[in-house]
Amino acid sequence: MNKLLDTFSDIKVSTNPEDLICYSFDASGIEASPSAIVWPNNTEDVVKIMKYTHDNSIPVVPRGAGTGTTAGAVPLKGAIILSFEKMKKILDIDPENLNVLCEPGVINGKLQRELEWKGLFYPPDPASMNFCTIGGNVAENAGGPRAIKYGVTRDYVMEIEAVLPNGELIKTGVKTAKGVVGYDLARLFVGSEGTLAVFTKIRLKILPLPEEVITLLAIFQNLESAGDAVSRIISSKIIPRTLEFMDREAILAVENFKPVGLPEDAEAILLIEMDGHPAAIKKEAEKTLEICEHLGADIKMAEDEYARNNLWASRRAVSPALYHIKPAKISEDIVVPRNRITEMLKRLRKLSEESRIKIVNFGHAGDGNIHVNIMVDKNIKDEYEKGLMLVKEVFSHTLSLGGTISGEHGIGLTKAPYIEMELSKTESNIMRAIKKVFDPKNILNPGKIFPDNCTGQQKP
Amino acid sequence: MNKLLDTFSDIKVSTNPEDLICYSFDASGIEASPSAIVWPNNTEDVVKIMKYTHDNSIPVVPRGAGTGTTAGAVPLKGAIILSFEKMKKILDIDPENLNVLCEPGVINGKLQRELEWKGLFYPPDPASMNFCTIGGNVAENAGGPRAIKYGVTRDYVMEIEAVLPNGELIKTGVKTAKGVVGYDLARLFVGSEGTLAVFTKIRLKILPLPEEVITLLAIFQNLESAGDAVSRIISSKIIPRTLEFMDREAILAVENFKPVGLPEDAEAILLIEMDGHPAAIKKEAEKTLEICEHLGADIKMAEDEYARNNLWASRRAVSPALYHIKPAKISEDIVVPRNRITEMLKRLRKLSEESRIKIVNFGHAGDGNIHVNIMVDKNIKDEYEKGLMLVKEVFSHTLSLGGTISGEHGIGLTKAPYIEMELSKTESNIMRAIKKVFDPKNILNPGKIFPDNCTGQQKP
Q: A440 contacts in B (CB within 8 Å)?
């Protein structure tokens, strides 16, 4: 890689062992050492680097903040890491045309704050929003609690400037609200997990900031009632901006780790938020309250920032609480049609009882998107293997209920062994052929999404 | 084609000359005779037909209602027409999961009415909604006036069952609100103009029906003020559900054809509609009124169905009025960033003055989507050729303002000669390679989108 260092005198390149270690893993916990890290400053740098790596058949892995949970940014095959830490400018906020142009390294939360300050709003809010980058969000089609009302990253991407694996620069999508000129390459790039092209600029649609927010916390004595509440709220023509869920195990984990005062006999909680015009959301909140109370829930309501933060405290504490119990747990993000949530949660409980492995569930009930946490230790071989068997069963139940094995985490490396449980051979062959159109040398994030040459949850 | 007739004893096939004539053109006015028309009854029939046409290398053109304006459904190369008139069932309306499963031949307007009756809402509303089909809407990524607030067809497609050119059946996308498993083939199909796969079932996202609607008609004495009003409304954090525009020529055409009482000195009108909670839209309407009045507009407001229909009368009369003047006009659907509308309209006026060809403009100002009508007669060679020269200039101005040459009509045959004004060689090569992945024999709607073997606006 010394040649690489020499080639790009104006681009920061490192092969220091400490850098190689820092960039060898992401939030999946899987590790593989890159052969170098390169930090481009601008589009031209990315073009230069990609031309060089193409000519020399060197694999490349684009990386945002490494917050992905399916090992999308883990460099296989001695790839070099293309890190976007220096390309983090918000290039243009356009309130008249309601869009924003970003470099891929912009932090989602930073963008949110800049926009809110101007009365504008970028809805996708993944849990890692204070760290994760817009480039990574687009690559993974990131979601978040607000997806139930506002959709996912895909719904906000207008235009992408990207560099192909051979170093060619393309601009796809449009600056305008509409456009149908040829196939939708911009949308094909969304969720492509860094396997088709490297993004260098992204234009996102934005919205006016909603006027007001009301937050409700509903505590249920049984699971069915919580599931019923989700269906009934939506059937009542209310689309909350979040409809978050935690099961009994998640509540206990939080109360043990950082007590927020949830009753010990609670079986499930829903955290429900409405946004919009004050009169409109007041009416929605009243109706929601009525539905939940009718189902036996105990309700708390918050209309200001301070009270809201208190209600969110439990939901925000779940992830840290679970890492506290098992730092190396298996975490999945299945989705079922929202009226099948209760059924899915019952099946998860049964699987847990049968296998004697604790399963903790929380997530975005409004979307049917459940974060299923299988509480095994990846570092204990026996336990881990039992966990993996359970993953397969979880996926199989999910699919039988009309669901999907990934709502917002993507496939990466960890779910690649399971992708053909969901996709037919024909579909996956078409996807592979599309990959080949963009990357015939298979040098852009190789080994991801498709099960060839990857070892799934195992360390590669 | 007699063999075709024999092969499918249970599927209606016709080679009657009168049928061949009826299916030889669409709303583009371009004609080419098919060699037969086939009416499948269900998915299995489509699979059978596609296997047969693939084995015998017979080109196939899927067709909804033939309302497309870019000749997408016109059969080139003696293709057979696959007509979806018998596959028009709404298979399932699911209010709990907020989606609807349709066969491709379902009429958009019929779906709208069925849903509204249940308090549900499918926003995309192309002008031809009372005739056009959901299958065609997905193939063209149809828009409509409500796109400014609610987006286009793409934003509502969840899952597509489709038959590939070789007869293989695939199911792509998900039943759930979220899903990131492999590349987004469902979205790649949206706007692919019947060139990648034939749709047999489509699952669409739906919404609760908005509670109330307020309609405003604003009449402006000058073009700039109307353009400014569009920008200021959006900058004031108001997203109307429609923000429609008509220029002076369009107003005159309507008043001559079917007078609705618009003042003769009006330079432009905006038709603005808000929907949602009564208190919320009342406030939005007041603010909009203030903005328009401040810019010198004369305003009419409607809060009930009858008054609303009166305000819409002028906008609805534009298309028939223009066909009355020149039945064979050239009609384009460019888009510019919404704050460039005034500039674009000024350039269009200048082009019209210089060429001495009348250009009439109306459309979806809120999206920057202008329907540019070049009032020439396609049947008079000289006039038509001058019109075509003008099309090229219109596109070139559109692109220089950061726009796109098609907002909702697609490329089809009529815009194919211009597609490379917008797409780079690299982009169009990738799209062609993707076409090849799906259709290596080039038998599904051949000659569309990509400029090879097509003669654009000329009769093929």
A: none
Question: How many inter-chain contacts (A to B, CB under 8 Å) are there?
Answer: 261
Tokens of A401: 């209920």
- Judge whether A331 is closer than 8 Å to chain B, CB to CB: no
Please provide the CATH number assigned to the domain covering B90-208.
3.30.465.10
Query: How many Å apart are CA B79 and CA B37, to the nearest integer?
Result: 9
* Cβ–Cβ below 8 Å for B184 and A168: no
Give the right CATH number for B212-316 from 3.30.70.3450, 2.40.128.600, 3.40.50.10240, 2.40.128.20: 3.30.70.3450
**CATH number for the segment(s) B326-418:** 3.30.70.2740
Chain B interface disruption, residue of A116, A180, A413, A421, most B CBs within 10 A: A180
Task: Name the CATH code of domain A2-85 (choices 3.90.870.10, 3.30.43.10, 3.60.20.10, 1.20.1300.10).
Answer: 3.30.43.10
Cα(B303)–Cα(B312) distance, integer angstroms? 13
Instruction: Quote the CA–CA distance of A360 and A345 in Å, as a whole number.
Output: 10
Give contacts of B231 with chain A, Cβ < 8 Å.
96
Q: What's the DSSP call for residue B439? A: -
Structure ipTM: 0.95
Nearest residue of A to residue B188, measured between CA atoms:
A184
| Paired tokens of B37 | 């028309």
Domain boundaries, chain B: 2-85, 90-208, 212-316, 326-418
**Between residues A424 and A262, which one has the greater pLDDT?**
A424
**DSSP letter string, B225-292:** HHHHHHHHHHHTT---SEEEEEEHHHHHHHHHHS-----TT--EEEEEEEEESHHHHHHHHHHHHHHH
Strands B298-302 and B212-220: antiparallel
B144-189 pLDDT, tens digit each: 999 999 999 999 999 999 999 999 999 999 998 889 999 999 999 9
